[in-house]
Structure formats: structure tokens, C-alpha cells
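Make up an example, fold above all:
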Amino acid sequence: MTFRKRLQYFLVKKLQISNKNALALISAGKVLVNDVPVFENVEVCVEDSIRFQDEVLQVGKQLLYVAFYKPRGIETTLNEEIEDNLKAILPFKEELFPVGRLDKESEGLLIMTNDGRLFDKTLRSEHQTEKEYIVTVNQAITEEFLFKMASGITILGKQTLPCKIEKISEFTFSIVLVQGMNRQIRRMCYKLNYEVTKLVRVRIGNVLLRELQPSEYYFFKSDSIKNQKASI
């Protein structure tokens, strides 16, 4: 959901006028939102164009949300001075930044956007946004391994939160996290004497990797990112 605020408060800040004068301008129909005169104290956001007389107060910004398949071997950074940086392989022209990270040896779903508020909404653990991964390890998965991973493991001096985990095959499992600790899955597995050989993120909230191949992408709407589990 895009953050919105009353037009009155936008005018007060932008024109440095009082609340009373802002409401008067609105009531007189002197303010245009998306080229249409408004007569009520409507809600506006960064996507709206706003004009007062011949002055453009805000150029409407198109907020974009992209599901991108980050290939293995690519650093999640737009810093062009870093080798194997993300910016060098991005296939779209828009100036977008990644929400969150995937370590260099991991691959899969990475959300790209120009909406700065999405970072906080998606990544803060109290929002409980689920992130799902398919993980392959170097030895057979046991019930003990699944139980300990699901219950929580101490890494980086902190106990990981309980999580959902399901065995897919002898060496592969799916895991759903609401945390974003540095290299969390790899560190958890290491503590149990397992080594991750492949790690693919397949979901963030309700945004799915779908059938994307490395470096492919699709656009989605902001309300696709929700805290409940997706219907797959």
C-alpha cells in the first residue's frame, strides 16, 4: 500500500502556508490533482501530479515493482566498482534498487523497486513477511536436522526464530523465514554439520519466483506483498 496524506498538509509544507489557507485553496478549486480540480481535502501520494495555478508542485512518480531472478555469482549491490555487481546485469532501463539481499552464491527472487518505503515494510521482522527458499545440502536430511532447524539455532550470538521447514527429497528441503540474518540458512546448516550446495529464494510475501530463469523478471503491483503465505 502506497503511503498517502491529506492534500491540505502537502500544501502547507510545499507552499509554506497555514492550514486555513490550504483548505481555502482546495475549496476554491485552485489545486489540480492529476490535472483535475479538487474541491475536497483528498488524500494524495507521490504517484499523483499536483499543480497550483501554473506552478507544478509535484510531478507524479510512477512507482514500479519488479520480481527479478538474481543469478548465482552476482553480488546484490549497485556499486559498479564491485566485481560481479547487480547493476551490470539488470535488463531494464528504470532506476530501481533491490529490497533486501541475496548473498553471492545464492539465487532466485529479488524485489527491485523505486519505492523507498517498501524496504521497511518488507524487511522488518515485526511485519512477519515470509521468505521461502528451496535448499539443497551435501548429505541426507534427517528428522533430527528438520526438528533443530525448525526449532531455532544459535548463530551470530542470537537464537533464530522458529520456522517452517519441509523435506522435499533426500538432499533438498523448503524453509520459510521471517528473519533476515546474514547468511542465515547457510549458518544454520553449518551448525548442524551440513553444507548448502544450492539455495534459491522462491517467494517473498505473495510474490513468487514463478517460472523465471536467471536475469528474467516481471512487474507486479505493490499490494502483492502481503504477510500471509501465498497460494502456490
